[in-house]
Amino acid sequence: MHRPTGLLQTTYVLMFLCSYSSLLKIFAFHLCFGFSSCLLDNATIGELKKNKIVMLISWPQPTSVCRLGCVVASLTPEHRYQQKMEGITPGRRIPLVDLGQLGLMHDEEPSQEEWQRVARQLHDAFTDIGFVYLTNHGVSDDQMDHLFKSSATFFNLDEETKIRYQRDPEKQQGYVAVDRETLDTKEMSHELREAYDLSRVDGLFPDVEVPSLRPAAASFYKSCTTLTNRLLIALAHSLGLERNLFTSAHKGLCKDNNLTCLRLLHYPPVPDTIPENTIRCGAHTDYGTITLLFQDNMGGLQVRERGGSWVEAVPVPGTILVNVGDLLQFWTADKFLATEHRVLIPKEELQRKASRHSIAFFINPDNSVLIKPLDGSSSHQPITVKDHLFYKLRKSHNY
């Protein structure tokens, strides 16, 4: 089971001694009808403890909010997805794709049927809404937990310390403070977000303050790179192209001639007073090939579907959210859609007072690759990867 990382610092509750109290009946109702969790306040927790119904197991530390974890462990990502989708506004939804034999748990070559199944489902998602949830991907919970914890440790440092690791615009490595980056320059004047960009495992890291970050990032990089190559092969299959067409353009992942970036993101608690037109992340499309996004449980991400309405990209434990970037849309002559997305300021007071964390693996082809439509059309002008990326980065970063 993927544990919620960070923000609500959820406390799990485990039943171990039954009682015939009314509280137990309420809990039994929830369990029988398949709810994975219910929120309890301090008063309810105290009543449960008094009646010897529960014991508390905290991860990572106790808070005033806890979750009944009796059935969560048995739920698959597919079940969680269905639960998350309940109550979501009807319309285009982000589909869920099981990677099956393409997941990192499998070392053997997937069958042709599996390549074609995953390829077809990715093609359907990327031509419709441009986003997809992946299950059975094989990036382990431990890897995610270690990187999320190391990321939170860094962002909890004082500003004076963090700024010593300020991002190098040429190397795309280092700390990006709040208001150093504006993704929606038309609508938003203030984006409440900070980040740490990691384009190289051997680059600038806060090793003194957060010694766990470099090894956690290195492990994560390795898994995400392997998974990326499998996805790129599936995408080539989905378009009827030569198997290695995309992977051959991404040979330099995590090397000097490639700007693929592992980005740690922190959305700090929202102050009581904020300027007008403030958002956590302005509406934008990603710049590269595809993005692998790992969310905590706070929510807030929205995707603009083709009809123009905003769809909730709710966090689904056990999944990776994957989306198309500009370069892949150019490459495929607009078959695959680079969809706008944003992160809103929460309306709920509890969420406004909590941080939000996510980790994005932005995948780009090698710098010198010339991107032009594969169908030979003139739908987009040819451009090198480096020229495109630096144009977009200079436009969004305030240095």
State the main characteristics.
20 strands; four-stranded mixed beta sheet; 399 residues; disordered N terminus; alpha+beta; 10 helices; globular
Mean pLDDT: 82
Strand order of the largest sheet: 5-6-16-13-18-10-9-7
Helix- and strand-based class?
Answer: alpha+beta
Give helix and strand order, one letter per element, not per position: EHEHEEHEHEHHEEEHEEEEEEEHEHEEEH
Helical run tally: 10
* Multimerization state: single chain
Q: How many β-strand runs?
A: 20
Ends distance: 42 Å
Query: Could you say which overall geometry the principal axes of the C-alpha atoms support?
Result: globular
* Relative strand content: 15-25%
The value of Rg in angstroms is 22 Å
Largest sheet: 8 strands, mixed
Q: Could you estimate the helical fraction of the residues in percent?
A: 25-40%
In the predicted model, the low-confidence regions spanning at least 5 consecutive residues are 1-74, 87-91
In words, what does this structure look like?
- The chain has 399 residues and is an alpha+beta fold.
- Helix 4 (112-128) packs across helix 7 and helix 5 (141-155) packs across helix 7.
- Strands 5-6-16-13-18-10-9-7 form an eight-stranded mixed beta sheet, sandwiched between helices. A four-stranded mixed beta sheet has the order 2-4-1-3. Strands 12-17-14-15 form a four-stranded antiparallel beta sheet, with no helix packed on it.
- Mean pLDDT is 82; it is low at 1-74 and 87-91.
- The protein is 29% helix and 20% strand.
Quick overview:
By secondary structure, this protein is an alpha+beta fold.
